[in-house]
Amino acid sequence: MRITHTIWRRILGLLPGEIASNETGWLLSPHQHMPLLQQRRALMLVNRVRLFSLLFALLTPLWIVVDVMTLPSGLWQMLATMRVLATIAFVGLVLWCPQDGQLSGAYRGMTLLFAIPTLFYIGSHLLMTQYHLEGVSAAIGTGYAFLPFVLLAAFSIFPLTLIENLAFATPVLLAYAIAWALDWSVASWPSFGGEFWLLSLLASVSSLASISQLAFIIALVGQTIRDPLTTAFSRRSGIEMLELQLVNAERNQMPLAIAFIDLDHFKSINDAFGHAAGDKTLKQLVQKTLACMRRGDVLVRWGGEEFLLLMPNTDMIQARLALDRLRQQGLGLRPDGTPLTASIGLAERLADKCNHRRQLVEIADARMYQAKQQGRDRVVSD
């Protein structure tokens, strides 16, 4: 993994520390991306799909004037019809492309964005082969052959993983090959081979630029959503992630547990040993908690010595067992060598019949205060 991380860093021009070694796989496949990154990337992809669709919707019909002035009447009329249909499709994509923060919607938008001009390319290529064009008409007709090059170059502005680049670029390359195959009787195979190689090279360069964008987005998101002291998620990003997880849990009718963790007598650490010792204690708590968390759990620094632990697909009993394991493992040591303890309030959306983020946090917070009133160093779940 370290070798792979080094190779990726050198190829993409990343600086040390921009992407952690455990995040290298995020450049290959989207399946390991955290929900917050998925949401922000989905919104970014959709916005760029709508931007490109608007650009194509404006430019596609304008070229009809050029076709009318340079191409035979039968040809330009068919091309104009195709351009009008493509323009309508692009306008529809601008208006109805979903902005729900879901990658599935972003994928559909990108598929349509690249499918429309790809189909237009195949159709226009078949039409062009029925006419013998010369002079200016031939030059204009040749320009249609550059559409796949434009599409592949466009990938460079989308932050995509390697697998996503392959999934979207392959149909464009296949469409180019199909267009040539449909005209096999007059096709110049050496010319096709050279152009296809150039297209593949352009697709590779665009994919590299696309992955580089994704790498910097991962690094930027990582810097903005983390608490700089403890590396736990910040409160703002924690709120976003809790909202996302509540939506997913409600949609799939799954449990979602949250634990409100407050360190016991933390103020006395700062007073007796200084804030540096307090900071070290907080870092220690986070390290111990992260080591005990399952994949998919999220630890948020809510404020000061308060933390929120989000546990998706976890009911009240499972969450209680997980917290018991955490407490048995130990939360670390105070500066004087005594065990570090915490008062923990536990809430779960199904058990507490609550699907509202603020109310669910308030329930866990209230139970945390009950834990303190009952003598601290315990978990209260009802």
From TrEMBL:
Citing just one GO molecular function, the answer is: diguanylate cyclase activity
GO CC annotations on file? plasma membrane
Q: Where is the GGDEF domain?
A: 254-382
Which reaction equations make up its catalytic activity? 2 GTP = 3',3'-c-di-GMP + 2 diphosphate
- Per the record, the domain of life is Bacteria
Please list which residues make up the signal peptide.
Answer: none
Q: What CDD domains is this protein classified in?
A: GGDEF (cd01949)
The GO biological-process annotations, alphabetized, read as: cell adhesion involved in single-species biofilm formation; negative regulation of bacterial-type flagellum-dependent cell motility
- Which terms are listed as keywords in the entry? Membrane, Transmembrane, Transmembrane helix
What parts of the sequence cross the membrane?
A: 49-69, 75-97, 109-127, 139-158, 165-184, 196-221
InterPro entries under this entry? Diguanylate_Cyclase (IPR050469), GGDEF_dom (IPR000160), Nucleotide_cyclase (IPR029787), Rev_trsase/Diguanyl_cyclase (IPR043128)
Which protein are we looking at?
A: diguanylate cyclase
